[in-house]
Amino acid sequence: MARYSATFSSVTLAALADTVAATNATYPGSLRNGGATVQTKINEVYIGGESGASNPCTMILARASTLSVGALSVGNNALMDFNSTAPGTTASWGNTAATSGAQRSSTLYLLQLSLNAYGGIARWQARYGEEITTFGNTATGGEVLLSSKTGTGQVSGHMIYELV
């Protein structure tokens, strides 16, 4: 098992409606499995607000009803254990899709992490065995999207996940 930290820095959010393709660079990130037999387990999601004034944000981690298309970029994805060897198929992370962004499902919300982006934080940690999982490379199973439903603040943070 390889554990990764997927990070995002100083992202200025745009409110995203359900089932609408995410606009590049206006959401923290999308985590997409690398293949049909890849499973990821999300262990932690952390969001820290960096806005210069009060800006409540309703952040949603949800399954994607339509997957992003093309390479994902902007954001870092690093192995947490220096001695680990990356598996042959890894997950993709980023908030900029080469062709089109993922669409947040209107029915498959996994977490709602509300915060005031004026210095507030939101953190979710899974207990062992209760991680959020994704599997494969099809819609609703193969990708999750962290995005704002309401609010346009500026945020940074990370998502810790492992490939199994």
Task: Give an overview of the whole structure.
The chain has strands spanning 2-12, 29-32, 39-49, 56-66, 72-73, 76-79, 92-94, 96-97, 103-116, 121-125, 132-135, 143-150, 154-163. It is mostly beta strands and 164 residues long. The protein has one domain (2-163). The strands form 3 sheets. Strands 1, 3, 6, 10, 11 and 13 form a 6-stranded antiparallel sheet that branches. The model has no long low-confidence stretch (mean pLDDT 96).
Number of strands: 13
Largest sheet data: 6 strands, antiparallel
How many helical stretches?
0
**How confident overall, as mean pLDDT?**
96
| Broad shape | globular
Secondary-structure content class: mainly beta
Low-confidence stretches: none
What does the radius of gyration come to? 15 Å
CA distance, first residue to last residue: 5 Å
Beta content comes to over 45%
**SSE sequence, one letter per element:** EEEEEEEEEEEEE
Helix content: under 10%
Number of domains: 1
**Oligomeric organization of the protein chains:** single chain
